[in-house]
Every structure is written in structure tokens, then in C-alpha cells.
Amino acid sequence: MKIFLVGGAVRDALLGLPVSDRDWVVVGATPQRMLDQGYVPVGKDFPVFLHPQTHEEYALARTERKTAPGYHGFVFHTAPDVTLEDDLARRDITINAIATSPYSIRANGQFDTKSTLIDPFHGQQDLAAKLFRHVSPAFREDPVRILRVARFAARFADFTVAPETLALMQQMVTDGEVDHLVPERIWQELSRGLMEATPSRMFAVLRDCGALARLLPEVDRLWGVPQRADYHPEVDTGVHLMMVLDMAARLQAPLAVRFACLCHDLGKGNTPADVLPRHIGHEERSARLLKGVCERLRVPTECRELADVVAREHSNVHRSTDFGASALVRLLERCDALRKPQRFADMLLACESDARGRLGHLDSPYPQRPRLLQVLAVMQAVDTKTIAQQAMEMGASGPKVGDMVHQARVAAVQATLPG
Ligand SMILES: Nc1ccn([C@@H]2O[C@H](COP(=O)(O)OP(=O)(O)OP(=O)(O)O)[C@@H](O)[C@H]2O)c(=O)n1
Ligand SMILES: [Mg+2]
Q1: DSSP letter assigned to residue 71
Q2: Which positions make up the binding site for ATP?
Q3: pLDDT tens by residue, 250-263
Q4: ipTM over 0.90
Q5: Is 347 a member of any domain?
Q6: Could you list the residue range(s) of the whole structural domain that residue 11 is in?
Q7: Of 87, 102, 136, at which residue does a domain stop?
Q8: Rounded to the nearest 10 degrees, what angle do helices 384-393 and 398-416 cross at?
Q9: Per UniProt, where does ATP bind (predicted)?
Q10: Nearest-angstrom CA–CA distance, 39 and 31
Q11: N or C: at which end does the chain have fewer Cβ atoms within 10 angstroms?
């Protein structure tokens, strides 16, 4: 039985990047031998085990045969006679199909020697040429790989998809392969890609192969939709969206913010033609389309709720520079900022990404963010308890009490505004 390091750890070490998780492949073993040595099986039918001490993943060398479209239709063939080369041949892309002996990587991630690399599909050449190239026709067996290639493009932004791999991905999309993916797998890859340094690259690849139109038609539709050049020098809504996502990444925004950015302008995709390039009421339409996306992909609640408030209120946040005290307080009340201050802060980060994700504005200031945080602090400092108590002593009813609290907040904010 022989053990090799494979996949991301080898790739990242060759790129001089820190190695985080390590995947291992085991050749010449049986499930029983793994169990005998104390390895813990991951699933019932999956030939993957966890090391008893390190808990790293050890997969038996395997070949896969597809039985049905989509992610579920797998059977594994794993046997002691499956070679390392057999196993590497069924992996996704060449830069992920390089193996090495476990002793060739030092603790600091550097290679001792390159002579121990096993690279039958020339992954090192593709690393040097910065190419994502599929290893073999077996790429087809798992349509999630289309999303993986797109996600790797978001991480390694200077890499491109090899023409023959793009053609294969296009063919898979045409054959309906991405239509059978389960929502959890789509969301897992999309959310990871959103968290990479250049999320726009993921969408560029998905668009190029036609997968975006199948997975997120609401987003795909935004290319070719014009916006007012005075607000949006880049004009095209799809181009704007990509700039917003990369700005969110530059601002190191968390996932919920990046997802909110992705969905904030969906409503511009169905603006009536006679209204263009203006987008009156797109905020409401974005919120409605967002609901459909979230149900389809089973987007987690935190992401969904932030995206909803950002879709509805981003234009108001941009305009808030012209707001008086009353309009400011109403904006923050609509955003539920007092009860959800962190979500409100996240919302402002999404709005800043939106404002600066425009041609010529990448380094523009966004004073709305600090100002509205300041307004929130002023509102938080209002002693609502005492006001409510006094109101009730005066015999005021529920709605009237709420009104007096609101008025006290407006007065407090008013006092901080320049004369
Ligand atoms: N659909 C998939 C998933 C994984 N793999 C193979 O399994 C390895 C490990 O998978 P994973 O940990 O998901 O990806 P990494 O390449 O290690 O990337 P990351 O840095 O994101 O962990 C990959 O390198 C690839 O060889 C594959 O061929 N097809
Ligand atoms: Mg990995």
C-alpha cells in the first residue's frame, strides 16, 4: 500500500502558496485494510477515510463510472489494482492532478525536491502557462467541475480556461448537465467563488460556457442592459455588477455582503424597454427576483435577509446625503438598524461596493457609510425607555408611544446636523 499527496496541496506548494488542507490518495489497499489500520470511513459508499490522528482525507485510488446525469449518479470502482495514474486520469484539471510522495513537502510547504513529482498529465506545464485544462474526457462525469473551474478562475485570476476545456464545458451545458445539479452543490461552489479575490472571473467563465444562463439567468440577463452614463460611466449593467463584486472583495467583505452585491440590481434585468437607460423601481423588482434565486438555490437566511434589505434600500442609502433628520431616521428604521446594527453595517459595506464599483470611481470616497453609522450611534443613544415611560404616564397609547420615540430620535439626529 502506497500513499501520495495529491490535489490542491501539491498545486499550491508548486505555486509557492501556503498549503492549507491536504488530500491523500492510497494505492494498493482495500477498505478493510484501511479499517484495520484505524482509518475512519467518511461515508457508507464513499471510498474515503479520515486519518485517525490528523483527520486528513485519504481516498482509495479509484475510477468513477457515471450512471445518471447530475451529481447523484455515481458508482465507484476501487480496487487494489487501480493505479495512481488511473486515479489521476479521472481528476478535474491537470494542475490538480499532480501527485507526490508525502515526504517531499516540508512543514513550511516548500518542496525538498521536484524529482518525486508524478505528473502524467503535464500539470506543471499548465501551471507555468497559467491554464485550466481538463485531464481527460472523464471531466464530464461530474458537472460540478464546471463550477470548480470557474471558482479557481476567481482565485487564480491570471489563469485562463484552455480552449478545448471551454469547448467541453460548453458541450456539457448544451447537453443539460448543469440542469441536474443539486442546489447545495451549486451554492457551495458559488459561495466559495464569491469569497475569492476576483469573483468577477468566476462569472466570466460561467458566462463563457453558457452555465450562467442556466444557473443564474437573473444575473446573466444583466449584460447588454444599459444604465445612465452620468451615474454609470461603464454603462453596461453586467459590467457594473462585476466591478461591484471585485470591489466587495477588495474591501474584504464577508459572504453575505458579496451575495447582496450580486443580487442588488437584478431588477435592472426586466426594466421596461421604454424606460431605459433609467431603472425606476428596480429596487422592488430586484427584491422579487432575489426571492426566486434564494428559494431555488436554498441560500442561507443570513445571506438572503441582507440581500433583501440591500436590494430595497441601496438607492436610498446613496441618496441619503440629501436627507434631513426625519428621512434619515425613517431609513434606519426601515432597515431595522437598531435591532440589527451588524447587518446595517454590512449593508453599508455593500452600498459602498456598489458606489465604487463604477468606472472612474474605484477610489472615490463614500461618506454615506460613516455618516449613517454616526446616525445609528446617535439613535442608539436616545433613552427610549424613559421616553416610553413618560409617554405612558401621560396616558399615551401604543402607536402614540412609538411616535414619540420616533420624534425623539429625529430630534437627536437633527441636533447633530449642520445648522
Ligand atoms: N469534483 C471534483 C472534486 C475534486 N477533485 C479532485 O480532488 C482534489 C481535492 O479536491 P478539493 O479539496 O475539493 O480541491 P482542491 O484542488 O484541493 O482545492 P482547494 O484549495 O479549494 O481545497 C482536487 O484537487 C481534484 O484533483 C476532482 O477531480 N473533481
Ligand atoms: Mg483540497
Answers
A1: S
A2: 8, 11, 91, 148, 151
A3: 999 999 999 999 99
A4: yes
A5: yes
A6: 1-136
A7: 136
A8: 140
A9: 8, 11, 91, 148, 151
A10: 9
A11: C
